[in-house]
Amino acid sequence: MNVTRTQILQRGLLNRCPNCGGRTLFRQGRLFELNRECPQCGLKLERDEGFFLGSLSLNYGVTLVGFLTPVLLLWYFKVLGDTAAAGLAIVGALGFPVLFYRSSRSWWLMCYYYFLPHHLPANQGRATAGEDQNT
Ligand SMILES: [Zn+2]
User: Distance from the CA of 102 to the center of ligand 1, in angstroms?
Assistant: First the structure.
Protein backbone atom coordinates (compact mmCIF):
# COMPACT_ATOMS: atom_id res chain seq x y z
CA MET A 1 0.00 0.00 0.00
CA ASN A 2 1.50 3.31 -1.04
CA VAL A 3 -0.73 5.64 0.98
CA THR A 4 -1.10 4.66 4.65
CA ARG A 5 -4.06 5.35 6.90
CA THR A 6 -1.91 7.79 8.88
CA GLN A 7 -1.24 9.75 5.68
CA ILE A 8 -4.96 9.70 4.85
CA LEU A 9 -5.71 11.17 8.31
CA GLN A 10 -3.03 13.84 7.96
CA ARG A 11 -4.16 14.84 4.49
CA GLY A 12 -7.83 14.87 5.49
CA LEU A 13 -7.24 17.07 8.52
CA LEU A 14 -5.24 19.51 6.36
CA ASN A 15 -7.88 19.61 3.57
CA ARG A 16 -5.56 17.95 1.07
CA CYS A 17 -6.16 15.35 -1.60
CA PRO A 18 -6.20 11.91 0.08
CA ASN A 19 -4.48 10.31 -2.91
CA CYS A 20 -1.53 12.62 -3.63
CA GLY A 21 -1.56 15.15 -0.76
CA GLY A 22 -1.99 18.11 -3.11
CA ARG A 23 -3.84 21.24 -1.99
CA THR A 24 -6.49 20.77 -4.57
CA LEU A 25 -9.81 19.92 -2.98
CA PHE A 26 -11.51 23.26 -3.71
CA ARG A 27 -11.49 25.45 -6.79
CA GLN A 28 -9.09 28.30 -6.60
CA GLY A 29 -10.83 31.55 -5.69
CA ARG A 30 -13.99 29.73 -4.62
CA LEU A 31 -14.81 29.08 -0.99
CA PHE A 32 -17.37 26.32 -1.29
CA GLU A 33 -16.90 24.77 -4.73
CA LEU A 34 -15.20 21.38 -4.76
CA ASN A 35 -13.04 20.44 -7.73
CA ARG A 36 -14.54 17.69 -9.85
CA GLU A 37 -11.21 15.89 -9.69
CA CYS A 38 -7.77 16.53 -8.31
CA PRO A 39 -5.79 18.46 -10.97
CA GLN A 40 -2.57 16.79 -9.85
CA CYS A 41 -3.51 13.11 -9.72
CA GLY A 42 -7.00 12.90 -11.25
CA LEU A 43 -8.72 11.46 -8.18
CA LYS A 44 -12.43 11.92 -8.68
CA LEU A 45 -13.55 14.22 -5.84
CA GLU A 46 -17.11 14.93 -6.93
CA ARG A 47 -19.16 11.84 -6.26
CA ASP A 48 -22.70 10.75 -6.85
CA GLU A 49 -25.59 12.67 -5.33
CA GLY A 50 -25.74 12.02 -1.64
CA PHE A 51 -22.10 11.11 -1.07
CA PHE A 52 -21.46 14.33 0.79
CA LEU A 53 -24.64 14.13 2.88
CA GLY A 54 -22.33 12.50 5.38
CA SER A 55 -20.26 15.68 5.48
CA LEU A 56 -23.39 17.67 6.35
CA SER A 57 -24.09 15.28 9.21
CA LEU A 58 -20.48 15.56 10.31
CA ASN A 59 -20.72 19.36 10.16
CA TYR A 60 -23.92 19.29 12.21
CA GLY A 61 -22.39 16.96 14.80
CA VAL A 62 -19.21 19.00 15.18
CA THR A 63 -21.27 22.20 15.53
CA LEU A 64 -23.45 20.59 18.16
CA VAL A 65 -20.69 18.95 20.17
CA GLY A 66 -17.86 21.40 19.55
CA PHE A 67 -19.74 24.68 19.84
CA LEU A 68 -23.31 24.52 21.09
CA THR A 69 -22.70 22.08 23.94
CA PRO A 70 -19.92 24.22 25.47
CA VAL A 71 -22.16 27.29 25.21
CA LEU A 72 -24.96 25.35 26.89
CA LEU A 73 -22.61 24.24 29.68
CA LEU A 74 -21.31 27.77 30.18
CA TRP A 75 -24.90 29.00 30.44
CA TYR A 76 -25.88 26.14 32.78
CA PHE A 77 -23.01 26.86 35.17
CA LYS A 78 -23.83 30.60 35.07
CA VAL A 79 -20.61 31.63 33.35
CA LEU A 80 -22.72 33.21 30.58
CA GLY A 81 -25.91 35.15 31.07
CA ASP A 82 -29.14 34.29 29.28
CA THR A 83 -28.84 36.92 26.57
CA ALA A 84 -25.15 36.28 25.92
CA ALA A 85 -25.66 32.51 25.70
CA ALA A 86 -28.65 32.85 23.38
CA GLY A 87 -26.83 35.32 21.14
CA LEU A 88 -23.69 33.22 21.04
CA ALA A 89 -25.71 30.08 20.29
CA ILE A 90 -27.59 31.75 17.42
CA VAL A 91 -24.47 33.28 15.88
CA GLY A 92 -22.53 30.03 16.34
CA ALA A 93 -25.29 27.81 15.01
CA LEU A 94 -25.33 29.88 11.81
CA GLY A 95 -21.65 30.75 11.50
CA PHE A 96 -19.81 27.66 12.67
CA PRO A 97 -21.18 25.35 9.93
CA VAL A 98 -20.13 27.88 7.27
CA LEU A 99 -16.62 28.12 8.69
CA PHE A 100 -16.38 24.33 9.03
CA TYR A 101 -17.83 23.54 5.57
CA ARG A 102 -14.54 22.94 3.77
CA SER A 103 -13.12 20.84 6.57
CA SER A 104 -16.28 18.75 6.83
CA ARG A 105 -16.00 17.84 3.14
CA SER A 106 -12.36 16.96 3.55
CA TRP A 107 -13.00 15.01 6.74
CA TRP A 108 -15.77 13.03 5.05
CA LEU A 109 -13.42 12.05 2.21
CA MET A 110 -10.84 11.19 4.88
CA CYS A 111 -13.32 8.90 6.66
CA TYR A 112 -14.27 7.18 3.43
CA TYR A 113 -10.70 6.45 2.40
CA TYR A 114 -9.59 5.68 5.96
CA PHE A 115 -11.94 2.72 6.04
CA LEU A 116 -11.50 1.83 2.35
CA PRO A 117 -7.85 2.75 1.62
CA HIS A 118 -7.67 0.22 -1.21
CA HIS A 119 -10.09 2.46 -3.17
CA LEU A 120 -7.37 5.12 -3.53
CA PRO A 121 -5.80 4.95 -6.99
CA ALA A 122 -2.34 5.21 -5.39
CA ASN A 123 -3.06 1.95 -3.59
CA GLN A 124 -4.51 0.10 -6.57
CA GLY A 125 -1.65 0.16 -9.00
CA ARG A 126 -3.48 -0.76 -12.18
CA ALA A 127 -6.81 1.11 -11.80
CA THR A 128 -7.63 4.48 -13.31
CA ALA A 129 -7.56 7.42 -10.90
CA GLY A 130 -10.85 7.74 -9.08
CA GLU A 131 -12.28 4.40 -10.18
CA ASP A 132 -13.69 2.26 -7.48
CA GLN A 133 -16.61 0.00 -6.89
CA ASN A 134 -18.92 2.74 -5.65
CA THR A 135 -18.87 5.18 -8.51
ZN1 LIG B 1 -4.54 14.35 -5.81
Answer: 16
CA of 129 to the centre of ligand 1 (A): 9
pLDDT digits (tens, 9 = 90+) for 60-99: 999 999 999 999 999 999 999 999 999 999 999 999 999 9
Q: Which positions ≥6 away from 48 have C-beta within 8 Å? A: 134, 135
Residue 72 Cα to ligand 1 midpoint, Å, equals 40
CA distance 135 to 129: 12
The answer to whether 2 and 119 are in contact (CB under 8 A) is no
Residue 109 near residue 45 (C-beta atoms within 8 A) = yes
Long-range pairs for 13-21: beta carbons < 8 A, 24 or more residues apart: 13/106, 13/107, 13/110, 14/106, 15/102, 15/103, 15/106, 16/106, 17/41, 17/43, 17/45, 18/43, 18/109, 18/110, 18/113, 18/120, 19/43, 19/120, 19/121, 19/122, 19/129, 20/122
